Fold this protein.
Amino acid sequence: MKIKDETLGMWLGVIGVALFAVTLPMTRLATGTQAQPQLSPWFVTLGRAALAGLVSAVFLLVTRSPRPAPHQWRPLGIAVLGNCIGFPLLLAYALRVVTASHAAVVTALLPLVTAAVAAWVLHQRARLGFWLCAIAGSLLVVVFSLVRASQNGHGFGFEWADLLLVGAVIAASFGYIYGAQVTPALGAERVICWVCVMALPVTLPATLALWPTQPIATASWLGFVYVGMFSMWIGFFAWYRGLALGGALRVSQTQLLQPFLSILVSIPLLGEPLDVVTLGFAAAVVATVVVGKRLSQPPAPAAPALRAPVGAVD
């Protein structure tokens, strides 16, 4: 049974990562570009949270989930700011300027930045090698952004959208860490539900107030529904359940597939070209994440030397 649970957990993890990977092209589809704008980034951000909040409220009522304890509201509130507002809003504005493939390279730093935020917020000591990997990954993103700006005819400089993407990664990292603090007590799926429900008093009326009056393409509405139902809600159910069944250490490795899946999905969905430079930088950033995650925890204290018993074989 254990082997079946681990296999199911791995597949659920892959499904969750695949659903999250499609978030980038679907967000760009929802917002449109600067040349052909569709839904506003504010509407997409607040609307997707409102949609997820409504289905979350139903889930919490049906499952008779207990209310969070008083001391749990603060970390949940920070998760609201990071995961419900900060990340999707900054991402939506950035994706009006840069391609989804471009954004996939920058957001590939998310696991590494999350580990860095955990070290800072939770006062955990990380090895020097981890910080070197974090610096290397950041430098790769900087070089990629400079190369892309130069190729797009913007000279030697940064796209302002790159700063938005970095802000989105930082916002998501803080949201993940503070949400993780209450996950053992509330349960993983209920954390995202409470986060979305807490935001409803703001997101629901704001969504109605910002409802577009101009015609919107059907594809943009489909992108909006996707990020509300799958990116903000169903994806978390698959991901968290996969981590629980298959083991967090093993299943979390599937997250390394996310930037490549985002790039591949963007080709048929948005007509973006398969760019060797983008794939190369994505692979390099993922490599720093692999090494960095292995070094994100301090080394275990050395065990005291023990005398081997008589007859023991090394």
Summary: Confidence is low (pLDDT under 50) at residues 302-313. The longest helix spans residues 218-246. DSSP finds 13 helices and no strands in the chain. The two ends are 34 Å apart (CA to CA).
